[in-house]
Write a structure and sequence with these properties.
mainly alpha, Catalytic domain of cyclic nucleotide phosphodiesterase 4b2b
Length: 404
């Protein structure tokens, strides 16, 4: 290989001997061929990123040894790989710092990958570079076969494809070079593996069907007032949601303040009742006020939910608002899709549903703010009364000055 120096050649020979002779034949993915691909990929990335000769040397040696641990055990093989490297390492070939770098490079390939240096990022990208190449799907089949053999289990094709989709979807290359050169193919492979999962295919069909029906229904609506009507509903709904968020914040403030207040009162006064008996009534009053305020604040934010089911009769008679989750969360997707398609066929029903959605958002807001008003009033008046009672108790028990 063009980037090999004498040191790399020597350690490549050690690693290849182990990978060829000691790796089980059942490991059809983590074979010597995989390591060779990783070494080649690291060399490509290293050249593009202008690594120094020493960086290339250390990275290539780590690449050759990173999977040698599979000759000892399948899980946590990275630690075994380091131990194998240590057994064959000549102490005169590396400084202590260089040995540490190679160790960290091997460990960085452990899943999930968490590289800390540019060199580690390059090796991690090289290890999974196939996710952005034409060989991805074929190599994925080999990995599935290997895992079934190693763990003595049968992994269904649907489950394997679904898990592979989540893995490749959540993966991101670390180096800018890998992202730029292999990012597009990575996205293409993500779509490819998703298309092989029946669950996702069915979901996509439902979404496309709803989008198509919505588009057709929109075309039937009068185009002139549509933009103004949509703007009205959007702004109104947004304002309602902002007000709801403000109400929740106010309730949380009251809960936090009164919880802290109760804790202070109980911990600070409970053990000193005998010393200050005149303060019992003010303290109890303030605790009860705080408790009532907490209960009211919780009631204001406590969600309520309906059965979440509707009948075809409800849709035909336009009695159900399909835009509110509480009316359909208990239904099957087929029934909900049918209901939405019926709603989209009738523009008046669609606008009626939007209107109902806004209306009931307003009803929920009204309830929240009504209870919050009571909570704030209770706290305000109760706090004032408690303080007055405390001042009276202090004055009543104040010592009188001796007369002259």
């Amino acid at each position: 290989m063009k980037m090999e120096n004498d040191n790399v050649k020597k350690y490549r020979a050690f690693a290849e001997k182990i990978l060829i002779n000691d790796i089980k034949s059942s490991l059809v993915y983590h074979s010597v061929n995989h390591t060779r691909l990783v070494v080649k990929a690291f060399e490509e990335i290293g050249n593009a990123m202008n690594f120094s000769a020493k960086e290339m040397e250390l990275g290539l040696i780590a690449a050759w040894f990173h999977d040698t641990g599979y000759s000892k055990k399948y899980t946590l093989h990275e630690v075994e790989s380091i131990q194998i490297f240590e057994k064959v390492r000549n102490k005169e070939d590396f400084t202590a710092e260089e040995v540490s770098i190679i160790h960290n490079l091997i460990l960085s390939t452990k899943m999930p990958q968490k590289p800390l240096t540019t060199l580690e990022e390059a090796l991690c990208d090289a290890d999974l570079l196939h996710l952005g190449t034409d060989s991805f799907y074929d190599l994925s089949k080999l990995l599935r076969k290997e895992m079934e053999s190693e763990f003595k289990i049968e992994i269904g094709k649907e489950k394997w494809n679904r898990d592979s989709y989540y893995f490749i979807r959540n993966h991101t290359y670390f180096t800018s070079y890998a992202r730029e050169k292999y990012g597009a193919k990575h996205k293409e492979n993500t779509s490819l593996i998703r298309s092989k999962v029946k669950e996702f295919v069915n979901q996509d069909k439902v979404v496309k069907s709803l989008e198509s029906k919505l588009e057709k229904a929109t075309e039937k609506l009068d185009k002139k007032p549509t933009r103004g009507v949509e703007t009205m509903f959007r702004i109104t709904s947004r304002n309602h949601l902002q007000l709801s968020s403000m109400a929740d914040s106010k309730a949380n403030i009251m809960i936090s303040i009164n919880t802290i207040l109760i804790s202070i009162l109980i911990s600070g006064y409970a053990g000193r009742v005998a010393d200050y008996p005149q303060f019992i009534l003010p303290v109890i009053t303030l605790v009860l006020v705080s408790l009532a305020t907490i209960v009211l604040s919780v009631l204001a934010t406590r969600p309520s939910i309906s059965e979440g089911k509707f009948s075809k009769k409800d849709i035909i008679e336009k009695k159900t608002n399909l835009l509110f989750f509480g009316n359909f969360h208990g239904m099957d997707i087929e029934d909900y899709e049918w209901g939405v398609s019926e709603m989209l066929k009738d523009s008046s029903y669609l606008y009626s549903s939007l209107t109902r959605d806004v209306f009931f958002l307003g009803k929920v807001l009204g309830r929240k703010y009504k209870i919050l008003r009571i909570a704030y009033t209770t706290f305000m008046l109760g706090f004032v009364v408690s303080i007055l009672m405390l001042l009276i108790a202090i004055y009543w028990k104040a010592p009188t000055l001796p007369s002259l």
